[in-house]
Amino acid sequence: MNNASKTFCIGVDGSEVAHLAFQTALRLRKKEDNMDVFHISDRNKTYLPYDLEPDHIQDAYETLLVANVPADHRVVRVEEKKEGQSTKGAACEYVNGSDPKPDFLFVGCAGRKGPKEDPTILGTTADYSLRATHC
Fold first, then answer.
1. How many angstroms separate the Cα of 108 from the Cα of each of 24, 43, 70, 73?
2. pLDDT class of 128 with cuts at 50, 70, 90
3. Is 71 left (phi over 0), alpha (psi -120 to 50) or beta?
4. pTM for the complete prediction?
């Protein structure tokens, strides 16, 4: 059996389904595995409620990880998307540019707007990340 560590990359946006993706990754993680939790921020969204603000999201996931994952096996980042860049494009750029390269990417099946009318349809970020990330 191979005991090499894996890197789990988890995209969070403050939504319930993103948090479920995080919880799934946490349950699948072995003690030697690494957790890279990231949030794509848009500085133009100044109207967000407190629980969806980037600093709150970062603090919440740092707090959740501190009891479960050693400091040298976890990171929580907020990445600002570039002007004119889509959130899904910024997320894929983050994942593809990560070092070390993640072995697994976890994202919710829908974003902050909630599930689609047809539950078999993925949100655009989840769908795009399936095709554009290298993990």
1. 10, 22, 24, 22
2. low
3. alpha
4. 0.83
